[in-house]
Write a structure and sequence with these properties.
about 60 residues, about 15% strand, globular, about 55% helix, 3 strands, three-stranded antiparallel β-sheet, Arc Repressor Mutant, subunit A, alpha+beta
Length: about 60
Amino acid sequence: MNTVDATNRVRAEYREMPGMQLTLRQAARLFALEIEHCETVLQELVRLEFLAYTNGVFHRR
């Protein structure tokens, strides 16, 4: 899965479950992504201010 598709998928999952809070490892497992790819996707969503990273978990802003 390319980065754009993965980013769209992760964004959709967080929209469906607004209270979701995941560690990097949990997110990689849930989204079936390699850990490095998942980290890139999550960091991009943080950069876009869709997600925040607090106390080791990624969550909606």
